[in-house]
Amino acid sequence: MAGDQGLYAYAGQQLAEGHAPYAAAWDQKPPGIHLIYAVLWTIWPHESVVAGADMVAAGLIAILLVVIGRRRFTERMGLGAAAVFLFFANPSVVQRMSGILVRGQCETFIALAITLALALVAAERRATRHLLAVGVLLGCAFWLKYNAATYALLIVVALAMWPRDGEPSWRSFLRDVGWVAGAGALTVVVPVAAMAAVGAWQDLYLATITYNLDYSGETFEGISPLGYLFTFPIERSANDALWLLGGLGAMIALVNWLRAPRSTTALCSLVILSWVAAACLSILINGARDLPQYFVQAAPALAMMAAVGLAPLVARRRSAPWLPIAIMVLLVVMALRPGEMGHLPKLIDNTRDDWNALVGRTDRHTYLGRFGGRQQDKFKAREVDALAKAIKATTSPAEPVYVFGFSPGVLVKSERRSASRFHWSRPVVIEFAAGTPGYGSAAVLADLEREAPSIVALQKQDWGHDDPALAGEPNSVTFFHQHAGLNAWLTSRYVLERETPLFEVWRRR
Question: Most buried in the list 46, 71, 135, 164, measured by CB within 10 Å?
Fold first, then answer.
């Protein structure tokens, strides 16, 4: 469980205990991901549930790709899309640390919701209940991240290209859009009203709109959003075989559509093209930070696009045998190239290390050292685990603790409550909404004075650099000590117990 997932898990635990959203655990994400983690932790209260949920979601997406292929293309195309997705979208294939940074992210469940919605729209005998379910799924994706609203484009195109009972008409199309829009609107409005009723509206707005607009906007300094939209797919294609395959499939499908724009195959391909386009727009809205989890949502669309676009070429293996050979050579080169983003070598290394830990050949301490071994990593699994064990062994369950940084997994693993709802530090470091009651360093200081946590852990490496000559935000430990009020509170009431490569650990006198 990496840093983000620890954050979702802790927020989910607070929801499960009856706290209103953002009241006990503040986060920039909409509460959908916190609700999912609350359910996951109820089912299996261990960090392995993150990888388990990610694998289940991947399996369901693969099945749904087969369903979409069977309903609107061919079953072989669906099976091809599922195979491409399961191999090339596997986080162990291209990501560092066995892909733990991208597993169980919002985009994982957005991808599942949208793939299921498209499978429902693809039904030949589409009923009103299908449309209502599609609207609910769009609303659920929206509550995971607001930028998922771009997938409404996909659903509108699919409803137009795949008319009910195969008989296109404006009346039928508008009626279907109305059912989807109505169900989607209710899925959004009802939770908003519920959160407003419990006094969470201001927190919801500040966290998920104000903070995210600032967070996304600052990533486009020096680059235009339009320029980024056209450059990031090319950059991804150079490093990720799935983006390369999906891109090739999209170009071929686009050419085929231009040649025969009214053919059934071309119109179906247009739906998948709109899926890829909606995913790219969603990624754009996230910002230009190129965080790996942003791109997870595009994987099913790219896999389906690869199958739809490249299948006709493979089918011509008798008349043009060089085409499938060229595709295979390209795949081999992409899958075997060396380096951090290598596909097959990375998969082999990660699988071997995971298997050795599973069967007991590698002890837990050694295994955790694989995750966050670089000095600049703000997530170090071994340090998170060690601090959580120490806290659990030396404090009582009723005592709050405070971890100032980006290691909320300490709270989850130690089963302890944070002394402040700001259980990760960046909103405090940048003094987000400091003029609003309950926000900024002043609010955290008030929380700490009231709660008197038994242990305070300050993270040394997370947001920036301690060198004042370098631009950017300070690390959490530097900010805390440079803040007169926070530092005075800490040094007058706590004693430095120990230091580790990642934490300063202070214990109450």
Answer: 135
CA 36 to chain centroid, in Å, comes to: 13
Q: Of the candidates 171, 146, 148, 158, which has an alpha carbon nearest to the alpha carbon of residue 120? A: 158
Is residue 265 pLDDT above 90, yes or no? no
Backbone angles phi, psi at 457, to 5 degrees: -115, 125
The string of DSSP letters for 61-86 reads HHHHHHHHHHHHS-HHHHHHHHHHHH
Question: Both tokens of residue 285?
Answer: 């809205």
Three-state secondary-structure class, residue 421: coil
Q: pTM for this one?
A: 0.93
User: Using DSSP, how many helices (H) and how many strands (E) does the chain show?
Assistant: 24, 4
User: pLDDT averaged over the chain?
Assistant: 91
Question: Nearest Cα to 298, choosing from 268, 331, 274, 275?
Answer: 275
Task: Please give the structure tokens belonging to residue 100.
Answer: 């733990």
Residue of 427, 411, 409 lying closest to 48 (CA atoms): 409
- Which tokens hold the place of 484? 């007169």
Question: Mean pLDDT, to the nearest integer, of 224-235?
Answer: 90
Q: pLDDT tens across 199-221, in order? A: 999 999 999 999 999 888 888 87
- Ramachandran angles phi, psi of 278, nearest 5°: -65, -40
116-168 pLDDT tens trace: 999 999 998 899 999 999 999 999 999 999 999 999 999 999 999 999 877 78
What was the pLDDT predicted at 271? Answer: 95
Please give the Cα distance from 39 to 59 (Å, whole number). 19
Cβ atoms of 183 and 6 closer than 8 Å: no
